[in-house]
Amino acid sequence: MASHNNREERPDGLDAVFRPRSIAVVGASTRPQSIGGNLLSNLFRSGFTGKIFPINPHASVLHSVKCYASVRDVPDEIDCAIVSVPKEHVLAVVAECARKGVRGLVVITAGFKEVGPEGAALELRLNDLVRKKGMRMIGPNCMGVINAEPEYSMDATFSPTPASYGPLAFASQSGALGVAILNVAQSLKLGFTQFVSMGNKANVSSNDMLLYWENDPRTRIIALYLESFGNPRRFVEITRRVTKKKPVLVVKSGRTVAGARAASSHTGALAASEVAIDAVLEACGVSRSDTIEELFDLASALASQPLPKGDRVAILTNAGGPAIMATDAVIQQGLRLAELSGQTKRRLAAFLPPEASLGNPVDMIASASDANYGRAAKILLADRGVDAVLVINVTPVLYGPRSVWDALMAATAAAKKPVLSVFMANEEFYDEARSMPAHPPIYRFPEPAARVLAEMWKIGRWQKKPRGTFPRYRVDAGKIAPILARRKRRGGGYLDPDDAFSVLAAAGIPVARPVFVRRESQLPSGARKVGYPLVLKATGEKIVHKSDVGGVATGIRDETELLAAVERMKGELARHGAAADLEGFILQREARGRELVVGATNDPRIGPLVMFGLGGRYVEVFKDVKFVLPPVTREEVLEALAKLKAGTLLSGVRGEPAGDREFLVEAILRVCRLVTDFPEIAEMDVNPLFVSSRGRGGLAVDVRIRVAAPENAGG
Ligand code: ADP
Ligand code: MG
To answer: Within a domain: residue 518?
Structure first.
């Protein structure tokens, strides 16, 4: 798992698409409004360095270049074909391309999977053909591809906006957004290595693109616009590795991974929610943005600035208000305000007016000149206690923002620390910036700049952080396998409580063994086996959440209380209309401590997802939970735990003793092991898992485990 061979992993054949020596445009046309016409003129406009062969049976010359009726008629070799013909002809064209020896395809034509089952069937046939012939295909239903590297200079899209060369590689699942992406990039002066509109991802997936860019030395930043995860498990595996080498920025539209599905467990319900996707992306070190704009805020900073080596920010400003906003934003993003050294303050005092404030934020007041900005920025960058500088400029009276900007750029161009600039100027300045050569980003407000800094710090930390140690816990497979198999033979579903507790115990998690009694008359003898104080619970296949129907009574100290509790419980059950569901009782030792939840889901597409956090009855109310994707290290679990309010609770609040964190971490890791070894566990909840004070362990008092239906049963 840890040592992938990257060369092996690099997807084959994509150079035929992105680095071709010759391109055929099938469906080229003279009509400028047509897609084929735009494609052809974009190829010429971009100055593609290879040969271009327009293919159109109804023309003999296009763009002053000889046009062929079919790829077969082309006397040269063709590496890549851009296909933009009516969908009925796509298969025939691709077959011809195969015969001609074409290795790369970009199928622009729409009308496939995206339009319904018939289109999906056609797409399947198309992809079969492509695979059988050993070709690689982008699309169908896409806007095309760009390779802006000077050696290729290829724009094979029908986008009106061209792309310049730079460090960003972008894969967009949406073609329409592709145009917007190219527009934003152009206005920010951000260049690409490759840009690809993925379309339906029939043959080449976003995962393939990640692998293609993983070791590409020119691609320094990878950005993805995703609507769906084709293979989320694989995405996690790949990005976990790639993000250690270069930032991967993702805009994921649609906030759920698993999609909405009926889930009766706490974990299932939460896994289908937005919480899980964030966890998935966080687990692999991806930087998630909510919007394209946010993504570019970050991308343009990454393109021009080094990563910070720490979280200490110095703020340099000429106005108090925005500096307060910036301070708030910096703190809110989890960064710190740098403590400036005495030397830094003396150096600043040497040229700033006495009214200036030399703490952090450094407020040079409204009279600050362009030269002041340059000088002060340099001094702050030289302070060893400063990891990043956030510059704020509110257009002063005497100096235009442009001259401040120029002075700042001159002073900080060679800096080894990031400098992010917020210019609160009038519209003319931003217009002017668009005509400046490539430059670091200019933010209009402190908040996005602070967010970007925080994200950069996160990336820097992630790249350096070792994953930690994978624990070696074992589960007792000999005990677990037969229990699960039995349930599976009966069509899957929830284990009865006795079996569920056995599985958990065999996974090495301490359980408060329940004693079952069918009849009320057996309660006193059952209770003597358990010992007081104890807990009484109603059980029955239809009783899902016992406390919802009054089926849990705690703190029972003797037989008298037990008998009273039974009477009360029967009344409660009747009141909730659950009297008929009662099949018996559970007697259980009373546990003490904090109530946590540990649960798991096993989605066939995502694999195991383990959740933990604040437990008890309000799990879904507070949603104070984190997800991890096994395999995880002890350190990763600890880090996730630290972000929970429940994690704070474990440290002991208001003089109470700290909880047994070690116990909890081990229980989480054991659940990880359990659901990895037994993927037939579709869902499980341990809620609550009582965690005692440090060194005293804990106990699981309620467990639900659902076994997946056998595959052939259509589950
Ligand atoms: P359900 O989840 O079906 O409602 P639980 O068995 O989780 O039933 O019990 C509900 C609540 O009762 C728990 O969250 C906990 O507060 C309390 N409880 C249950 N069992 C015990 C026990 N053995 N010791 C102490 N408290 C318990
Ligand atoms: Mg429970």
So the answer is: yes
